[in-house]
Write a structure and sequence with these properties.
heterodimer; A: about 200 residues; mainly alpha; Arc Repressor Mutant, subunit A; 9 helices; B: mainly alpha; 4 helices
Chain lengths: ~200, ~100
């Protein structure tokens, strides 16, 4: 006879397994890897189910776990070149501005239409790849805030840092992430468009 | 630029902070004023919004145009059963 948990876990797989798998497969492009990510997602969900407070839907919660797994996957796969771009030393973000406070390399327009599936997919691929190239702590802070929607108070507790430090890390994460995305070809030279 | 106006580096920090904490009305107005005059910071603001949208995106994306319309891959029956069996083991280990 199944326990309540086993029943729930079976239902989770039937209810959300395919959607999670498709999301993972579209990112990693390899069936075995996508299946492993889905399994790891459900395992983590079973292990953490006591912490699921029902503030979000089960689907949103499971997708959040999968997104963390994807970032971990990309971190293990990362290439050296992009890691160099995403160095998190103190001056990395300062160097994006001139001494007079103007942009050193102004943000370039991001092409693509958020309503077009191909463009969304291209953005998401680059987005998770870049997140995997961020320094781990920086990526975690960003994921807690933007993927999980945690408050900065909760992030401070999880990472054991002060609120001001948390804001600094989130700022760095956003700056490095958008710079990385532009480096993937999402952005076009400023002269090419006046978006 | 007048001394009471924000510089681009200051605006970028405040726009990011504004995504995580409440921002006084006066500060918000000064940021808006700067963005109205500076297309780079205006673009930066849109990019941070886009990052937030991407983070929360978990809708299914339709298959590529070059794939058949009904090409929606699902977990194979074998993978589905393997995952369920693994979860049952985890449940037994925990109980």
């Amino acid at each position: 006879m199944k326990t309540a948990l086993a029943l729930d876990a079976d239902q989770w797989v039937d209810a959300y397994g395919d959607a999670l798998y498709r999301f993972a497969l579209q990112r990693v492009k390899q069936i075995e890897v996508a299946e492993d990510l889905v399994q790891e997602t459900f395992l983590a969900a079973v292990q953490a189910q006591e912490r699921f407070k029902g503030q979000s839907s089960e689907k949103t919660w499971l997708f959040s776990i999968l997104k963390h797994k994807l970032i971990d996957y990309y971190r293990k796969q990362r290439t050296r070149n992009r890691s160099e771009v995403l160095t998190d030393d103190e001056g990395a973000v300062d160097r994006m501005f001139k001494a007079d406070g103007h942009w050193q390399e102004p943000p370039t327009p991001w092409h693509g239409d958020p309503g077009r599936s191909h463009d969304v997919r291209e953005f998401l691929d680059a987005f998770y790849d870049c997140l995997g190239h961020l320094p781990e702590r920086t990526a975690k802070a960003f994921a807690y805030r933007e993927i999980d929607g945690l408050s900065t108070d909760d992030i401070c507790q999880r990472l054991e840092i002060s609120a001001s430090n948390c804001w600094v890390i989130l700022y760095r994460a956003r700056m490095l992430l958008r710079k990385c995305l532009e480096g993937t070809g999402i952005g076009k030279p400023v002269e090419a468009s006046a978006t | 630029m007048r001394h009471w106006m924000f510089r681009c580096d200051e605006v970028s920090k405040k726009v990011s902070l504004g995504l995580d904490a409440p921002m006084p009305l006066g500060t918000r107005l000064l940021i808006r004023m700067h963005q109205w005059m500076c297309r780079h910071c205006s673009r930066f603001n849109r990019q941070l919004q886009r990052l937030r949208e991407l983070s929360r995106y978990d809708e299914e994306i339709p298959a590529d145009l070059d794939c058949p319309p009904d090409h929606h891959p699902n977990l194979s029956p074998e993978a589905r059963e393997r995952i369920k069996a693994r979860l049952r083991c985890e449940d037994m280990d925990r109980s």
